[in-house]
Structure formats: structure tokens, C-alpha cells
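Inputs:
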Amino acid sequence: MKLYSILIIAIFNGIYLQAQNPDCIFSLSGRVTDLKHEEPLAYATIYIKESQLATVCDENGKFAFNNMCAGNFTVYISHVGCATDTFFVEMSNSLFREFRLNHQDEELTAIVVNEQFNSYRGTLTVDYIEGAALEAISGKTLGAALKGVTGVNSIQTGSSISKPVIHGLHSNRILIMNNGVRQEGQQWGNEHGPEIDPFIANKFTVIKGAAAVKFGSDAMGGVIIVDAADMPDTAGVSAVIQMVGLSNTQGGAIAGMMQGKPKSFNPISWRIQGSLKKEGFVKTPNYYLVNTSYNEANYSITTAYHKNDFTSELYYSYFHTKIGIFAASHIGNLTDLETAFASDTPLITSGFSYAIGRPYQLVSHYLVKSKSVYHSDKLGNFIATVAWQNNFRSEFDSRLPYNDSVAALNLPSLYFEIGTLTAEAEWQHHKVNNFSGSVGISGMNQQNVTRYSTFIPNFKNYSGGVFALEKYQLNKWTLEAGLRYDYRWMQAFYYENNVLQTTEHNYSNLSWNLGTTYFNKKHTSINLNVSSAWRAPAISELYSDGLHHGAAALEYGDPTLKTERSIQAIFGLEYETQKMFFDVGIYNNFMRNFIYLQPSLPPELTIRGAFPVFYYQQTDANIYGLDASWHYYIIEPMLFEIKTSLLRARDLINNKWVVMMPADKIEGELTYEFKDFGKIEQLNAGVTVTHVFKQTRTYALEDYVEAPDAYTLAGVSVGSEIHFNKTMLSWSVEAENMFNVAYRDYLNRFRYFADDMGRNITLRIKIPIII
Amino acid sequence: MKTNKLFIFSIATAIIGLTTLTGCKDEEVPDVVNEEELITTVSLAFENTLTGDISTFSFRDIDGPGGTAPTQFDTIRLTADSDFTLTTTLLNESVSPAEDITVEVAEEGVDHQFFYTVSAGLNLTIAYNDTDANGNPVGIINIAATEGASTGTITVVLKHQPDIKDGNSATGDTDVEVVFVVEIE
């Protein structure tokens, strides 16, 4: 983190020296503090747009600019862990001003890096993607965007559907917080990608390991937090336009954001944001993947009211996508599947097109959220959040009904509609005698309707939870303990031989968390966290009944499945010097009643041929692994980075490996930062090499085809910022799979049928506009 | 003043909590099984061209794939050295009255084709005897001929091949695939 600041100083230094002017005699000095806790923010970066001056605060958040001219100035202040804030200053004399940076997201203050090197993030293992790193992945799906984080992979259905995997766990075992609200859709499906527009995010936070006390059940493998930027807190209007173009799919994305705060009615601020995406057929090195095009259109509107001690925010977002499913991957039966596997190239190929035909998915997600924060000087912060989200998913099979009048209706083969109301209230008390913490209560009400299929039943569920988290800080040590109780009631409705069946399920459990961090200001940080989390079986695990469309499998749920519980320990170590940064994380996750799909022989005979049969079963599993990274400055502007993720998962009862786990991975990167010249700043170029090993911990009898071979991909990138007409335009060009290697990835379901994406060159441009 | 705000805040929170627990609309009862169109029955009718005798052999799975096992799965028994007209019928018997899917297959003949694969050693030949609008075979009506006594299997496959129908049995979606045991005596 400190490296980052040093880098910024180095970059800004040049400008600072050349911009001094003998006619300007004033000074602007001040202090940067945290709005909520009013504690100084050390090493915040301050940039004055008009005079192109920059500096970094000292340990106490203090800074000073000398030789300032009179006039109006725009001041940007950024700090690791906060979004960049904009302030306006009128100079007619020398000034001392206090700038307060607003951490909009209360949830995060407990874990986000504040003040000094990671001392505030609690005892969890956390990674962030923001700023330049975030810009470098813009235009990617959420799952693909997070793959650069060690320990994170993605489970894919081609390149348009990808779901994040944290330490081997995904879907219902990780939680995605979309702007402070837990994302609720049909998470159980491997081919159901998260319904979130990544362009909304100003920052991604990945918590590796269970964080169930704070975020509720299901957060067993980890939590992904998608956060929008803070609302503007000074008058004026600004906008950002982002454009992404992709060579492989001949597609791209355009995203725009506009925000402001009226001068006349000061407490109000607003933001509108939207994005459009269109991509055509994916091209592997040797052929196109027919029908892999997709479209996406999203927008969101935010308004906030902030006066004195009270902040309230109303947020609305809409996500809509139409995703074509690779024609040759939609399989009628086992014979089709075997024919497809036997062929090196897909049975259906064609030229390029943007057309989306059957099979395809149509998904919409609506979210309305209201969040209010009341800040009391004596007692702390009170936060209340209520959110309503509605998720509509239609899956269109390649096969149309024979009956013409039915076919003409163009109905989906599967349709799900799930509505979720969540509410949460939390009290974060002020630091008292080195103790800080929060207590909270949350509730959820959910209803699901399935049509045109009985693969999963209709259901409704109510759940509620209470939690308390306390942290004790003494010198270099932090101790943290948390406890949570959750209750879940679910009722399912389905037909058996045309008779309506109604069943009820009750689940209740405790989650807990114990952790400690040792933080040596100069070099070292150590954290150890032991926690326990649980989740109720997902609806598909309880009630799946019959043919899983497109997957050519018969899947059967088990309504008697018990809750899954995990007890895990994570140990993290970070060490840094002027020239290098090293971090390593070691984890062990023991999961009791781990739910998995067990293949069963013989295949079941149906009128459509034979189908393999799978039953949901439970076992005890142990997942353990290591994530490590090492950054080293070979010479000052040249940074070498190497990172690796290793993972093993054992089924302890059947004494074998758990399959569908990510293969080992090692990644190396070399970046060179050029000196600024003219209007060009932060010009950098990089080379990346990624090697993914073959997943050997699989069983021939339990998979249709063997796991794919190891592969190595290389990439290059170049980018910079350019001063352009009062704004700072940024651009980058990135080439992925530069040598157009034909490969298949173990976690991509398309590996059964076709190669992965070939060479792809992406151009990204970001233009901020201050109006 | 501040306690007042806190009070309002608590009340608001309580209301939110209550709303969550009392829930919203109740739309929990599912539609009566709105299952996709099913093919439950495949029947092969062999009409002896000499005697006019018709023997029908069926595979029947009333609730479709999964659930209860197929209720009928006949062994096809044919007399040796005979000629037959083979007519294949698909039914949806999960609805009442039963729906004849073959009619729809014939109407969309350009997108469909039956494939009959006879196992080695079985003295049976099957040839198409119908055409779609493009003059290609559909395979609803066929000519079958037996020779000496033998046993084996016949695999009946119906492929849905929109825009790609070219006589290749490997492409497209499989709507039907049943393997009948055949005894020629």
C-alpha cells in the first residue's frame, strides 16, 4: 500500500517542481481526516487541478502547498481505501482548511484499509481492486474481472457467463454484496452468472474466507463487495465516459456516469450511470463458437441527502442481458454428448455473426435500495438499509415445441422469478477504551416462482439474524471476536403425480469468528482468523427433479439434506521493504455435510435416450491451500511480480479428491513505468505470463472427458494518462492470449466441446469531464 | 433534538423489520404442471405387405424423462423373409386426449428426420418411403424387409435439425432415441 503512495509522489514530483511561479505568494495548508471518525488520514494524495500541484500528507494527515495564486481551485484528494473526493477552494489569502473524506460504506469501515498500512481491516484476508487496476479490467464480466486476485478463479460457461470462485467455493457458498445489498437471484446454477454491471463499481473488495458474522449465512467461501463511488459532496457536475473495444468478439462496451450536487439546494446529490455491451461470436484460434454473442444494457440512479448528522440514499438499478449459448454445447442426450466429445472441432461451426438464436438466456434484475445513516457524536453510527430486488430469468431451449400454436408463443423452456426483500439495522459504536464494534439485526423475505418446468419448485422463505462484532486494539495488536445467530424458514410447493405437496424446512445456526492481527508499522503484518459459517441447502440441492436442460443430466435433490457447516482458519503474512512486498495466505477449510453431486450408475433410460444420473449427497470435506505473491522492484521503475494459488480438496468420508476444483496456477508480470513527458503521464508497459497446471485430482469414471492439459498464456499491455483539454484522459491496450494458443480450461463447461477464446486485443479509454 | 432523531430512527427500523416479516404478495402455489411438450410414446407399426397383418411395438414413459420408469418396452418380433410397411408414431399420452406428435413432425418435416440403425447380424433392412417439402426423407413411413432368423437391436432416433438437415445423424438435437430388441423368427 505504501508503495502505491510512493509511486504517486514520484509521478507528481515532476509537475510539482516545474509549476512554481514567483507571482503567487499564498499558501494552502490543511489536514485530511476521516469524516466519520475524525481521525487524520496519513499519506492521502492531494492534487490541485488548475495549478497541477500535488503532494502527499504526512503521518498526521497534514499537508501544505506554497506559492499558490489567487483564484478558484479544484482539489482532488484520494486515499487508499477511499474513493477520490473533489473539493472546491477559493483562494484570496493563505488558507488552512480541514478536508474530510467520506467513507460512504459503513459496512466497509471495519475491513477497509484506512489510515496506516492495513491496521483497520480487521483480521480477515482481504483484496481490493480499484483505481488503475479497476480500469485495466473494465468491460469484463464480474467473474472474469476478479480472476487476477490470488485464490480467486471463475467457473465458466463460455466467456459470457462466469461466476467467481473463492478458494474453490462458488455459487451459494459465496456472497456478493451489490452496493450494500446481498445479491439474490438463482445463484445455484453454474450457468447463472451474477446479475451485476461491473461498470457500477468504483471498487471491488474480495474477502477470502468465511465472513458470515458480518454478512450472514452463505458467506462460507468468501464475500465479493461491489461498491459504487461516494456521492459528490461539493457543488458542481461531473461526468465520466468509458469505452471498451474487443477484437476477438468484434464487440465492445460504452459506459457513462454523470453526477452532481446543486448549489441552490445543498443537501442533495445525484448520480446516473449506465452501460451498453454488445459482443459477437467468440473466436478460438481455429473456429468461431456459434451463437456465443451477447448483449447487455444496464443503468442505475442514485440520489442522496446529507445534512448535519443524517445521510440518506436511494438507489435504483436495472440489469438486463441476453446471452446466446454455444450451439454445439446444448446437448440432447448422452449419445449427442459422446458424439460431441469424439469430435476435435464443434459439430456446428459458421462464420462470424452478432445473431443470438436458441438456445439463449434472458435475464433482468431490478434493485431498489434505501439506506440511512444517523451519526451521533456520543453513541456512534446508526445505519438502516431496506432493499427490494426482483430477478427474472428465462432460458430458451434449442428445441421448439412441435405444436405450432405453442411454438408461436415462443415461451422459454424454463422461467424463474424471484423477489427478495432485505432489511438490516446496525449500530456501530464509537471507540471506547480501545474497543470498537457493532451490533445488528437483519431480515429477509423471499418468494420464487418457476414456470414451464418443474426442475425446482416454488418456494418462499423468511430468514432473520442478529450479530455482534467487537474489536480490541492495543498498540500493534488487534483482537476481534464476533457472534451471529440466524434462522431460516422455508416452504416449498410442488406437484407429485398431480397432487400439490407442501413441505416446510427450518434451519437455525450460530456463526462465529475469532481473529487477531499484529501490525508492525514498518514492515510486517500478520493476521490469523478462525471462523465458523453455515448455509442452508439451496433449493436445487433439496428439490432438483429431472432433466437439467442443456447439461444432458438427470439431477435429483434430497429434501432431507442437513445444513452445511464450515470451520476454517486463515493465516496471512505481509512483509514489505522499500524494494519489495511479499504476502502469503494459508488456509484450511473443514466442511461438515458438504453437499455435492454424486454420479450414479447405470444411466437412466428415457425416450430421449440414456442420461447420466446425479444425486445430491453430503460428505465431510477439507479444502486447504496457499496464495502467495511477491512484488520486487528490479530497478526503480521496473516492477516484477509473481503470484501463485494452490488448492487441494479432500472428501474425507469417501477418502478421495473433491472434483471441480481449480487447478494450480502461477502468474508472472513485469511492468515498466516510463518518465512523464509532455502531456503524457504514467506511461507504462507490461508483460504477463500465466501458467495453469493440469487438474490431475479427478476421476475418469466421474467425468465425461479427461481434464484438459496444462496451458500457458502470454499477454502484453500498454497504457497512460494524457492531459487533454483540462481533463485527464486515460487509455490502455491489452493483448490477451497473445500467441493465439488453443487451450481448454478445467472450470469452463465449454471444454467438453470447444477450445477457449483465442487472441483478444482490448482497447480501453476513460474520459472524465468536469462541467 | 438528537434523542428525538434517534427515536424516529428506531421507529423507522421497527417498521422496516415488520414489513420484512409480514411479507408481500402470496403467489406460492405453482401452476399445474406446465411441463414442456412431452413425447411419452414411440410406436413402430409393421404392416405385412402380403397378409396385411399389423404388429405394433411401443416404448412408453408416461411422465417423461426421470420420475417413474418406462411402463412399456416391447421386444419387436417379426417373421423371417417378409416385407413390411413400417410406420412410426409419436404420442404425448401425458395429456388427455393423447396428442399425436407425428403430425407435427410431418408438418415440420424439413427440420426433422428419423434415423433407423440396425445392429450387425440382424437380417433387417429399413428404407425411407416418404419425403419432406424439399424432397428429403423424414422417416415416418418406411419400407422394411426381413430375411433369415436372427436377433439384434434397432435404434430409432429422431433428430431436430433446423436449417442443418442434410442426412447427417450426428448433428442437431435428439428428441427421441430408443433402442428396441428385435427377434426375427
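The longest strand of chain B covers residues 173-184. Flag for discussion at group meeting.
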